Amino acid sequence: MAEAADRDPIPRPAPGADPDPDPEDHKGPLTIYLVKQLELAIRSFMDEALRPYGLTTFQYTALTVLQHRGGLSSAQLARRSFVRPQTMHEMVRALEERGLIERAHAPGNRRIMEARLTREGEELLAACAPVVQKLEDRLLLDMPEERRNAFRQGLEDGLASLTGRQHG
């Protein structure tokens, strides 16, 4: 039964349910379903591209968050990296053991440990940049430039609508 669901890319409504819950009479899968499918595809390709560097997509995400934000607790890093705090705790330990991040007590609160990238972490991200850019280029390859901008803006707008945070 699960195998049949894996083969069918379009979710089917439950018996007796409204067959088209989209209020705009949009045909085809819901946008949120397409976004999830895109996320899963990107994660699969990212994991494959990052494997030679010894990183997973989640680890790469955490490192890039630290690159842009620096000095974050594990809980803050978990929120910004879209993983549970328990998962981030394990990830932080692994990244620290590899010498990609270092942790120190937060200024003003010795109970909180903040993570920062090390020089090795910065160098690894720089080495990964071309393969990640190649994947982004592949994603956008068949999209005209004006649609690329609209696609990105639509994603940012949707994220802002759901989270209440402005992007741009």
**Count of runs of 4 or more consecutive helical residues:** 7
Structural class: mainly alpha
End-to-end C-alpha gap = 43 Å
The ordered H/E elements are HHHEHHEEHH
Give unreliable regions as ranges: 1-14
The percentage of residues in β strands lies in 5-15%
Computed Rg: 19 Å
Helix content: 55-70%
- Average of the residue pLDDT scores: 86
Instruction: State the major sheet.
Output: 3 strands, antiparallel
Biggest β-sheet: strands ordered side by side in the sheet: 1-3-2
Count of individual beta strands: 3
Global geometry: globular
Description:
The chain contains seven helices and three strands. The chain is mainly alpha-helical. Helix 3 (57-69) packs across helix 4 and helix 4 packs across helix 5. The chain starts with a helix and ends in a 5-residue tail after the last helix. The model is unreliable at 1-14 (pLDDT under 50). Pfam families: MarR_2 (PF12802). Residues 1-28 are annotated as: Disordered. It comes from Streptomyces vastus.
Secondary structure topology:
Blueprint: H1 2-7, H2 31-50, H3 57-69, E1 72-73, H4 74-81, H5 85-97, E2 101-106, E3 109-117, H6 119-140, H7 145-163
Antiparallel strand pairs: 1-3, 2-3
Helix pairs in contact: 2-6, 3-4, 4-5
Question: What is the gist of this entry?
Answer:
The chain has helices at residues 2-7, 31-50, 57-69, 74-81, 85-97, 119-140, 145-163; strands at 72-73, 101-106, 109-117. The chain has 168 residues and is mainly alpha-helical. Helix 2 (31-50) packs across helix 6.
